[in-house]
Amino acid sequence: MKPITAIVVFFSLMLPSLVLGFGNYATTKENIIADVNQALAQTILDKNADHITVDTLRVFRSKLKIDELRETSYLSICTEAPSNVTFCSDTMSYKVGDERLYIRAYPNCSKAAIFGMSEQKIPSILFLLSLIWGAFSLMYLRTKSLDCYSVEPETITVGTLHFSKSSNRFWDEKRQEIYFTPMQHRLMQMFIAADGHRLSVEEICHTLWPGKEDARDTLYTLVRRIKPVLGKACNVKIEAEKGHFYVLKTEKS
User: Fold this and answer.
1) How far is 237 from 227, CA to CA, in rounded Å?
2) Fewer CB within 10 Å: C terminus or N terminus of the chain?
3) Where in 114-165 does DSSP place strands (E)?
4) Are strands 245-250 and 198-200 parallel, antiparallel or unpaired?
5) What averages of pLDDT result for each successive group of 10 residues across the chain (253 residues)?
6) Which sign does the torsion angle of CA 22, 85, 81, 40 carry?
7) 192, 248 in Cβ contact below 8 A?
8) Residue 16: in which H helix or E strand, if any?
9) Cβ neighbours around 217 below 10 Å, total
C-alpha cells in the first residue's frame, strides 16, 4: 500500500464524517429555534398576560416538541431591541391593554447538549472508521519502513537502484520502494539479471511478447514510459546501443 492511498482513504472517511456531523448539528439548532418559536406563539395565544408566571412557563414548555428543551428553556419579557444572546427565539409581541409587550424564549442548552440531540450515528461511525484506518495505516507503513531498512540477502545494485531477489522489489538510495507497472517490472528484472545489464531488442520482444511478430514499437513505448520513473527515483537510465541493444547504466554525475 502506498502512503498516498492511506491518506486518500483516511480523508475519504474523515471529511464526510465532519461535514455530515456539522450539518446535522446545524440542522438541530435550526429545529430547536423553530420549536421554541412555535411554542412561544401558542403560549402568547393561550396566556396573554402582562407578566410571566409559573403557569405561563408550564404552558410554554408543554407546547415544546423536543423533550430535552422542557427542562432548560425559559421565557423573558424584553425590549424590541435585538438580544445579546443569539441562540433564542424570534422576538414576539402582543398587546395588554394599550401597552405592547415583547417576549422571547431561550432554549438555554449548551453546544454539547445540542450535539447530543443531533443525529451523529453515521458521522460517528465514519469518524471511528477513519481513526481505525489511520492507526492501521501508520502501523503498516511503519512496519514496511522498518522492513525497507533491514538488510536483505541477494540484493543487486546498479548505481542507486537496488533490487532484492527475496522480496522481488526495487528500492532507491533512501530505501523507498520504486513502483513499476507489471510489464515495466518484468523488463527491469531482465535488465538486472542480464550480463552487463545489456539486452537485445529481439530477446526482450521474444520474452515479453512471444506471440507478436514485431513488438519493437511496443518495446519503444515501454522504454519511453519507464525512463521518467527511473529518472525520479535513481541515477540509472536505459540507453539504446548500436546493433539493436538496450543497456541499463548509471548516469554520469
Assistant:
1) 6
2) C
3) 155-158, 161-164
4) antiparallel
5) 85 94 96 95 80 88 94 90 89 86 92 93 94 90 63 78 91 89 95 93 94 91 94 93 90 70
6) positive
7) yes
8) helix 3-46
9) 8
